[in-house]
Structure formats: structure tokens, C-alpha cells
TrEMBL record:
The UniProt record lists the keyword Membrane: yes
Sequence ranges assigned to domain RagB/SusD in this UniProt record: 259-500
Protein name per Swiss-Prot or TrEMBL: RagB/SusD family nutrient uptake outer membrane protein
Primary location: membrane
Annotated InterPro entries: SusD-like_N, SusD_RagB_dom, TPR-like_helical_dom_sf
Length: 500
């Protein structure tokens, strides 16, 4: 059985204000004034602050947001199954897109909860150690949610108080640089307060805060700060390392392994109905990612497949034994000699009409379950892996003209994949080309590709090489999502994103 932080729903914490009637306290009505009393109260509220990351209909690490994060790159092809996700794939989405609006709302829901926690814990009389514990995690969660918003929408309102007063809601957007500055502040403070070892599996740590902070610096192209922030994660007191078997990053038995820096937790609890409903006390803590990727002949939904272009990247270099890259074999299933998919030969389980497709193995149970597709997945989503630290360090070192160190980090990734190591005689351009390639392969369908291409200035070129229809639709404005219409309608000071 998995040991995880349980993330309950708190009606008070999420929805109630601080209203009072005739200054009398109703003992049957919980308010912020009566709730935040004990360590247990704060622990429950803190748990609820993690919940928006994995809420079914908009959580950044649940299926709908995983879809729209991955579908905008050049590494997948998508079936016309659900209009909102297909619009993002084709670059015809609008400010009315429900999937995007839900993502926006979940981020601000988490931010509101974090703000409320920070305000209440500061005025509490609880122990200093506990105050630091709650403050560190709340800052971490606020920081990564603002990082998500700035990464997806660019300029967004910066809300730093938990007010629910109508007069406080109108708020102009802050620039992406201003939001990034807040993220930097939050994650820096969080890293100073959080423990090296998680208090419970699934909770934030010092290493997780530094990892996201280093990623922020990569996006800001502040290479020196990226190095000074990420390099400590490669040594004591941290024990991060690449797992020997790449596939162990995507199964049940090896969750919270040495490569995992931050995971979003899932477990088979909650109602089996209302998959796309609102958050409540019995909301499912599972997700259907496995069915999105899996073959229809085996019970999946067959919505998202690897693109032929991406397969070419996967298979462009054989390993030292003459086999396909282990990341291709562990991450994909396609019609090649010896391919086993759901514990049977690919050509036996997949109908002839589907055998030209390239299926995604990650998060699908394909490597160790019988033929039947599990209806709901309890596989944790590995939000941040140590492999990302190594490749970010390689990129940062290369950009500070230390090619030797860049190759050292890059070769750790290549070595795990049983590829020949790069020589120090490799040119800077060759090293950068391999960083681009290794990131494409290593993080296929993990929500990195689109953003990597955008920050490298390669997005339009690579989209133009993906499909004629998508290339014809793509404009620079699609580099970011528009501000959802609901925000524009209810927040008179918020203006729409450029180009929209």
C-alpha cells in the first residue's frame, strides 16, 4: 500500500469568507476565525493546498492539463476526441477554451489557499518549527503555481492576499518578469525553511524548492544562478541519482525513487463517479492518463500517440548493443521485431488497422499488467525528475562556456541510456544539439517539449515541420494561452494577452 499525504477537501478553507452576523458565533458554522486553532487544523488546510495540482478537471498534473501541455508540441498526434483539447492541438483555441480556464482557476485556487495559510500561520501561537514547516510548504506551492501561470499565460494578476472582498478582486496583470520575481522570492524562502527529507511522501522538500527555482533561472536564462542553485542537488546532503532502469520512473513499485524530486500523488480512493465534477470530500484521487495513451484494442481510449517525427528522433541513435534506445522501448510501443505490449507481442494485441500507430507506454501499466486496461490509474505523476536537473545543468554550463562540465552532465543521461559517451572534442553546437535531442527523448510526454522549443526560439520552426494544418494555424500568439474570458469579464482591470 502506498504511504502518501492525504489531500482532503475543506469546504471552509476553499469557499467561505469571514462574514459574521450580529457579531455572534454560530457553533455549527466553521469560519477562518474558528478553524485555524491547532496544528491539525493547519495540516488539513496545507493538505488541501496541494489538491489543485491534481484535481481532475484542471489540475496541472492531472489528465486535462497534461493533455494541453503535451498536445501543443511536435512530439504527439492527437485524435479529435474532445473539442477543447483538440483546439489547443490545432492552435485554434480561444479565450473561451474550458480546459485552459480550468487550469487558470486551479492555479489561483491553490494560490488563495497558500495566501490564507501564510496569513493565518503568521498570527498563530504555534511552535516556531511548525510555523516554519507550514510557511515553507505554502510558499513552495504558491511559487510553483505562479511559475505555472507565468509559463502558460505570461502576464497574469499577482494576488498575494487571501481577500474575498469584491472590491479587492479587480487587479491588473503583472508582467511575466514581475511574476518570475515573486516566484524567485517564494521558492528561495521555501528552500530555506523546508527539510531535506519530506515529512510525508508527496510533500515538498528543500530539494524540490531548489529544483523548481533552478528551472525558473533556466527560463530566465540566468545561467550562473541556475548552476549555483541546481549544482548542490548533485551531492550531499541530497541523495538524488538516476535509477538504473528508466522504466522505473513510471510504475507503481518504484514511486519516490532516487530520481524523483517531486511527485503528485494518486491513490485508489474517492468516488468512482463524477470524474469531471467539482472538488468535494469524495473526489477521486486517481486519473485516466493510462487510458488517454493506451491502444483502443486493449481497452484504452487511443487519443494521443507519438508522432512519426518523434519516433525518428527516438530511433536516430542505437545503443552500444545495437538496440533501440531504452527510453524508446520503455516509453513507446510500435511495430518493431520483439515489441511486447501488455505482455504480448505487439502484432497480437493490436489490430492490423492500428499497427502503424506509435503508442505511448508511459503511465499506462503496459509493462507489467495483463491485457486489461486499468480503468483508473493510481500511478504518481513524477512532476520533477533528477534527469531534469542534469540536463538543465548541462545547458547552463554550456551557456557559461564550460563545455567540459556540460558534457559530464550530459553523459550521465547518455550512460543510463547505454549510449556512447560524447567526447570532449565535440563542438559547442554538437553538444547543444544533443541537449535538445536528449531532452526530447528523456521527457517525451512529460510536458517539457513545447516549453523547451519556445525558450530556444525553435517553436515555430518545429511546429511547421509537424503537420501542414497545425503549421497553417500557428501564430506567435499561440506561444502562450490567452487569459480566460471569465477573468476578463469579472476582473475589469485585467486586459487580454497580446494578439488575442
Amino acid at each position: 500500500m502506498k504511504i502518501k499525504i492525504i489531500l482532503p477537501f475543506l469546504v471552509l478553507f476553499i469557499f467561505s469568507g469571514c462574514e459574521s452576523y450580529l457579531d455572534q458565533v454560530n457553533p455549527n458554522k466553521i469560519t477562518t476565525e474558528t478553524f485555524f486553532q491547532t496544528e491539525s487544523d493547519f495540516t488539513q488546510a496545507l493538505a488541501a493546498t496541494y489538491t489543485p495540482l491534481r484535481n481532475p478537471n484542471g489540475g496541472y498534473y492531472n489528465v486535462r492539463s497534461i493533455e494541453i501541455r503535451n498536445y501543443r508540441g511536435d512530439d504527439v498526434v492527437v485524435r479529435n476526441d474532445t473539442e477543447d483539447q483538440y483546439q489547443t492541438y490545432l492552435f485554434i483555441n480561444s479565450p473561451n477554451n474550458d480546459f485552459v480556464a480550468r487550469l487558470f482557476e486551479e492555479c489561483y485556487s491553490a494560490i488563495y489557499r497558500a495566501n490564507l495559510l501564510l496569513e493565518e500561520i503568521e498570527s498563530s501561537e504555534l511552535s516556531a518549527d511548525f510555523v516554519n514547516e507550514v510557511t515553507g510548504e505554502a510558499l513552495f506551492l504558491r511559487g510553483i503555481n505562479y511559475f505555472i501561470l507565468a509559463k502558460e499565460f505570461k502576464d497574469v494578476p499577482l494576488r498575494l492576499t487571501a481577500s474575498q472582498a469584491n472590491e479587492d478582486f479587480p487587479l491588473a496583470k503583472s508582467s511575466q518578469a514581475e511574476v518570475f520575481a515573486q516566484v524567485e522570492s517564494d521558492l528561495t524562502k521555501a528552500s530555506e525553511l523546508l527539510p531535506v527529507e519530506a515529512l510525508n511522501q508527496g510533500r515538498a522538500t528543500k530539494g524540490a524548492a531548489l529544483a523548481y527555482l533552478g528551472k525558473l533561472y533556466i527560463y530566465m536564462e540566468n545561467w550562473d544562478k541556475a548552476i549555483s542553485t541546481l549544482e548542490p542537488l548533485t551531492k550531499s546532503p541530497y541523495n538524488y541519482s538516476l535509477v538504473d532502469d528508466y522504466a522505473k520512473n513510471f510504475d507503481l513499485e518504484t514511486e519516490y525513487n532516487s530520481e524523483s524530486i517531486f511527485e503528485v500523488t494518486y491513490e485508489k480512493v474517492g468516488a468512482a463517479t463524477g470524474r469531471w465534477g467539482e472538488e468535494n470530500s469524495n473526489t477521486m484521487m486517481t486519473n485516466p492518463i493510462n487510458r488517454i495513451f493506451a491502444c483502443g484494442d486493449l481497452g484504452g481510449w487511443d487519443i494521443c500517440n507519438c508522432s512519426p517525427k518523434m519516433l525518428d528522433i527516438f530511433t536516430s541513435e542505437l545503443d552500444k548493443d545495437g538496440d533501440y534506445d531504452i527510453r524508446a522501448r520503455a516509453g513507446l510501443a510500435w511495430n518493431y521485431p520483439g515489441c511486447i505490449y501488455y505482455l504480448q507481442p505487439f502484432t497480437e494485441g493490436v489490430s492490423s488497422s492500428n499497427q502503424s500507430k506509435i503508442y505511448v507506454r508511459k503511465y499506462t501499466y503496459a509493462n507489467y499488467f495483463e491485457k486489461e486496461i486499468v480503468p483508473e490509474s493510481e500511478l504518481n505523476v513524477r512532476a520533477y525528475r533528477y534527469a531534469n536537473v542534469l540536463l538543465f545543468l548541462a545547458e547552463a554550463e554550456l551557456n557559461t562556456n564550460d563545455k567540459t562540465k556540460a558534457i559530464e552532465y550530459l553523459n550521465q543521461i547518455r550512460d543510463r541510456a547505454n549510449l556512447s559517451l560524447l567526447e570532449n572534442s565535440s563542438t559547442t553546437d554538437e553538444v547543444m544539439a544533443d541537449i535538445i535531442k536528449q531532452r526530447a527523448i528523456e521527457f517525451f510526454c512529460e510536458g517539457e517539449r513545447f516549453y523547451d522549443l519556445r525558450r530556444w526560439g525553435l517553436l515555430e520552426t518545429e511546429i511547421s515541420n509537424s503537420s501542414e494544418e497545425r503549421a497553417a494555424n500557428f501564430q506567435s500568439k499561440y506561444s502562450y494561452f490567452p487569459i480566460p474570458s471569465k477573468e476578463i469579464q469579472t476582473n475589469p482591470l485585467c486586459t487580454q494577452a497580446e494578439g488575442w
